[in-house]
Design a protein that fits this description.
The protein has 352 residues and is α/β, with parallel strands linked by helices. It has 15 helices and 12 strands. Bound molecules: zinc ion (ZN). The site of zinc ion has 5 residues, from strand 5.
Length: 352
Amino acid sequence: MKQLRNNVIRAGLDALYFTGAHHVLRPLLAGVGTIFMLHHVRPARDDVFQPNRHLEITPDFLSEVLAHVRALDVDMVSLDEAFRRMNERDFSRRFACFTFDDGYRDNRDHALPVMRQHNAPFTVYVASDFAEGCGRLWWVALERVIARANSIQIVRNGAAATLDASTAAAKQMAFDQAHDWLRTLPNDSAVQTEVSRLCARHGIDDGAIARDLCMSWDELQSFSADPLVTIGAHTISHCNLARDSEADARHEMITSRARIEQQLGQPVLHFAYPYGDKSAAASREFALAREIGFRTAVTTRPGMIFPENAEHLTALPRISLNGNYQNARFLSVLTSGAATAMWNRFRRVDAA
Ligand SMILES: [Zn+2]
């Protein structure tokens, strides 16, 4: 299914590009700004089985994106400056922000040098447990389990099911099915219980993954001192807030901010909802982020920034730089707003 969805998206991007529709639509759809969403930035790997590849782009592609945005005469600004422009309705020039979720070490090792070359500010949203070294990145754990296993067992419709994982194609299918199953579980601790069980059975140390991939507080201290870097919050445990009680959701948001502020000695004014789609962030979470006092909060809903978004600063859409579409010709389509306008059926603001 995922592969099919990827192919449909790719065909759509190609169609927009080859018909030139994105040029025609640009004045209507491009909006006043763009917030780009990234995760990992690191050199490409050869492995055939890379189910999380949509979450990583190469340093070269990042550099291409930055050159493209610069060539469009768009201002690359920090989130604080984007907030100022939206708050004061100062839309005399188009802007682009770059945001990276989760706090990966490769953001320092591979993204920062490229961002420096292009003098581009950016924000990294830190889940405080990941920096603590005790968080759980279950989607990476699942990848590591299936990479090593010949089959895995999950529970489907109340019954145990064995998924073949003996070939690269079977591994991809097993990952998609296990991933979809995990997303249906009632809460994050249920997801964690199941993933930990798989890890124990297949000899994967899931407790080590956060330390392996994410910056520690010590590392974040020197990283965040760079004038191009802003640190935002991303909850304590990287939970689906919409599935938490309101008290728990508030605690995740407030305490993650407090921990980062205490560790890094700087105010944290921006927030990203983990997962960030409609099942993970909606009106209750948007209101909480506003009440707690975040200046901006970003979702993973696709969209450009329009003047109307200034009324909904804790429900901002982003444009994903997806590792499955690292092709320069998709960039002009993405930055024209044509692709996201189609996804959003030409509705400019979706903040409900
Ligand atoms: Zn995240």
